[in-house]
Amino acid sequence: MIPSVMPTYNRAEFAIDRGEGAYVFTTDGRHMLDFGAGVAVNALGHAHPRLIAALQAQAAKIWHSSNLYQIPGQQKVADLLVANSFADSVFFCNTGAEANEGALKAIRKYHSYNGRPERWRVIVMEGAFHGRTLATLAAGGQQKHLAGFGPVVDGFDRVPFENMNALRDAIGPETAAIHLEPIQGEGGIRPASVEFLQALRKTADEYGLLLSFDEVQTGIGRTGKLFAHQWADIEPDVVAVAKGLGGGFPVGAILAKEKVATCLTAGSHGTTFGGNPLAMAVAGEVLDIILADGFLDHVVKIGDELKAGLEAAIAEFPKVYSQVRGKGLMLGLKSVPPNTEVAARMLDHGLLTVGAGDNNIRFIPPLIIDKREVAEALDIVRRVGAELSV
Fold first, then answer.
1. For the whole model, what pTM was predicted?
2. pLDDT tens digits for 232-269?
3. How many CB atoms lie within 10 A of CB 390?
4. Residue 165's CB: how many other CB atoms inside 10 A?
5. How many CB atoms lie within 10 A of CB 134?
6. What percent of the chain has pLDDT over 90?
7. Contact in structure between 191 and 326 (CB atoms under 8 Å)
8. How many angstroms separate the most distant Cα atoms in the chain?
9. Closest CA to 219 of 239, 200, 204, 241
10. Alpha helical stretches, state H, the chain
């Protein structure tokens, strides 16, 4: 008999009862160091007092009113995002998949609005992951996610990651945009080089295309800047964000330049729950904390320390670990044995991680971790390395 909760996940055998900072405590009495952060969602760790206070204060006022009325919290969060990014305007939704779906809609709407409805196809990358809606599944293009959900939504032309020759060859009269993750997450923590991102901007300008980034995982401070594309000193036209924006509360957003946002006229896009008062109260507090002086510098510094420690583990245990890649606190440790086996060993020692493609283990902890927690995680990495080297 099928369980009442649909079995769409291969869940671990334990349940998390509560969290505190970078640690979680299970219902069976264990405590673990959380370097998965709810898949890069809990940017400020668990039970952050400022987030709790913001949520409780708003919960005592109003939870939901719908977007038929003004929601003051949206103005604060939008103003912060606009002031600290390329964007001129923001649309709020609930999830990363919705944000990517909305970005893809905005791309089509932009060209149609400007008298070019024939431009609707989007160039995407091999190894990508953009969400679980029918369109975002097609944009990601991974067969393990598409199986059984055909016919696949049309409109996407896939090229190898970081291959400008293939990308330029894929541009045709129907091409509308380029859409990619600055660092592929599910694809194995594969960062695009600064040169590649800059070349994309130049190519998009040359052919009249929009440049759109999926920053659902890389955004909101994860790499040491508010958005990962900022390391390349370029401005996209559209960006999808979610995950860390709510610090654990569901919220997503589409950021856009004025030329794109103007095309999304009243009634052209919408959401029931997106930008609700609870989500905005928490997101505003998250941004206040992350944008405070020194916070992002800390992410860079502690991320470099974690990366150096993982590189040392590779040198010490070459039969177990082979490569580390990524930026800030979005790092992938490639293993020699199956990553599921290595991650399970780490879990046995009390370290939560998240798997990724290309046999990688994701280290995506809360952005508030310090030297003590890095040292604790690296100690577990070394212990597992020693065990599996025997």
1. 0.96
2. 999 999 999 999 999 999 999 999 999 999 999 999 99
3. 5
4. 9
5. 15
6. 99
7. yes
8. 65
9. 241
10. 37-40, 49-59, 72-83, 96-113, 134-140, 143-146, 164-170, 194-207, 258-261, 277-290, 295-316, 339-348, 371-389
Q: What is the pLDDT of residues 18-44, one digit of tens each?
A: 999 999 999 999 999 999 999 999 999
Structure tokens at 204: 């998009």
For 97, phi and psi rounded to 5 degrees? -60, -45
Q: DSSP H helical segments within 156-193, as ranges?
A: 164-170
Phi/psi of residue 9, nearest 5 degrees:
-125, 145
Instruction: Tell me: pLDDT of 390 over 90.
Output: no
Residue whose structure tokens are 């038929």: 68
- 8 A C-beta contact, residue 235 and residue 210: no
Domains in the chain (CATH in brackets) are 16-34+293-389 (3.90.1150.10), 50-290 (3.40.640.10)
Calculate ∠ Cα 38-44-47, nearest 5°.
80
In whole angstroms, what is the distance from residue 252 CA to residue 359 CA? Answer: 28
The answer to whether 174 and 118 have CB atoms below 8 angstroms apart is yes
Name residue 362's amino acid.
R
Please report the pLDDT score of residue 118 as a whole number: 98
Q: Is 1 exposed, middle or buried (0-12, 13-18, 19+ CB in 10 A)?
A: exposed
Question: What are the beta bridge partners of residue 298?
Answer: none
Q: What pLDDT sits at residue 21?
A: 98
